[in-house]
Specification:
about 400 residues, alpha/beta, Transcription Regulator spoIIAA, Rossmann fold, 3 domains, seven-stranded mixed sheet, about 30% strand, globular, binds S-adenosylmethionine
């Protein structure tokens, strides 16, 4: 157990008692003894024990709860948490070539991400507290999984909120180079040091698999990145057009296309908003459209603009779909709730004069668990919609 004690307000205590893992700085009454990133004992105003947490001296999230138990949160406890998360993946991501092993708050290890790509592991320690536990995390991974290499992708801008530098590199084992892993029958080459996020968008693995069933005819994959949806759906489509604004992403998509010997895909560097508008105006038609844009609402204050963006994209996509066609549409903005997303897409359908059925309402892959009492862990929404014939 940590030596320092942090006292929090009734409102902060209420959040912990309601099952959340964050306490905001405005709810900290006394943290005088706490050094940046230490493990602290948390108590309420009446000095009643609430749990143990990682303390941040900088972030608006001052405390991230690790446990409500009194048992010391030591290296053994950390190893048990990682082992428990890994056991869950044996169930929900069995056979996955690449998957998330630890998903931060989703696995009761706030601000820690561990992704596995083949036999290589990528970690992110995104708070002062997790940064201090990094060497223990690496030791535990080496002991438990004997990985070929461990890479840190701590080049995320969220580290600035914690006064932590952005950094990346190999921290154990050999230089990974290109790592190839197969999911849903498609081989992907990952660049773990240079790719977006930790190398790929692992949270869409199950949505790509689900979308296969609905795919046919001419497919448009907007925001394709390295071709995640385009390549998975290509075998069911006559032709595929994959769009992204990043030339690097499209180079990775082409590499993946070659790896899989798929001939029916064209990649184009384009702004998807512009492309959809001109496709709509010029009368282009598709049978299947995928929309998987980046998060438009990174802060609550971005919500209105984000909803306008989703409306515009979905409106155009619905207009260019042939009758009986399918739209696979996603939002990874936590601040846009599923209800708001549904409402926005419904409003787009009305404006597009299309009648739309909901074939599936989906979320992130199960290796990115949702904790019932931590709504922030439910961030990805994915709707599979059928346009009436
Ligand atoms: C969430 S990722 C897509 C992940 C991908 N669908 C997959 O399954 O792996 C979003 C992608 O959108 C691209 N992007 C961002 N803004 C864009 C825009 N306005 N037009 C086209 N691509 C954009 C980014 O380069 C990034 O590759």
């Amino acid at each position: 157990m940590g030596d320092a004690t942090v006292t929090i307000s009734d409102r902060g205590a209420g959040r912990i008692l309601a099952g959340h893992s964050w306490v905001y700085r405005t709810d900290v009454l006394d943290a005088k003894q706490a050094e940046p990133g230490v493990l602290v004992r948390v108590q309420d105003r009446r000095r009643r024990y609430l749990g143990q947490a990682l303390y941040s001296s900088k972030s608006q999230i001052a405390l991230r709860l690790l446990t409500r138990e009194r048992r010391a949160f030591d290296r053994e406890f950390l190893a048990e948490r990682i082992a428990s998360a890994a056991r869950h993946r044996e169930l929900v991501a069995a056979g996955a070539g690449a998957c998330r092993i630890v998903s931060s708050e989703g696995d009761l290890l706030p601000s820690l991400v561990i992704d596995r790509y083949g036999d290589c592991y990528v970690i992110q320690t995104l708070s002062q507290g997790m940064e201090r536990l990094k060497s223990s995390v690496v030791e535990i991974l080496l002991e438990r999984f004997s990985p070929r290499c461990i890479i840190e992708r701590n080049d995320s801008p969220v580290r600035a909120l914690e006064d932590l530098p952005e950094t990346k590199g190999v921290i154990a084992g050999e230089e990974a180079g290109e790592v190839i892993a197969e999911d849903n029958g498609v081989r992907f080459a990952y660049d773990l040091l240079g790719g977006q996020k930790t190398g790929g968008y692992l949270d869409q693995r199950e949505n790509r698999a689900a979308a296969v069933e609905y795919t046919r005819g001419r497919l448009l994959d907007c925001f394709t990145y390295a071709g995640g949806f385009a390549l998975t759906l290509a075998r069911r489509a006559d032709s595929v057009l994959g769009l992204d604004s990043s030339a690097d992403a499209l180079a990775a998509a082409r590499r993946n296309q070659d790896l899989n010997g798929l001939a029916n895909i064209e990649w184009r560097e384009a702004n998807c908003f512009d492309y959809l508008k001109s496709a709509d105006q010029s009368g282009e038609r598709f049978d299947t459209v995928v929309l998987d844009p980046p998060a438009f609402a990174r802060h609550k204050s971005d919500l209105e603009g984000a909803l306008r963006g989703y409306k515009e994209l979905n409106l155009r996509a619905l207009k260019i779909l042939n009758p009986g066609g399918f739209l696979i549409t996603c939002s990874c903005s936590y601040h846009v709730s599923e209800a708001e997303f549904l409402e926005t897409v419904a409003s787009a359908a009305l404006d597009a004069h299309r009648s739309v059925q909901v074939a599936e309402r989906r979320t992130q892959s199960r290796d990115h668990p949702i904790v019932l009492t931590v709504p922030e862990t439910h961030y990805l929404k994915c709707l599979i919609l059928r346009v009436a014939e």
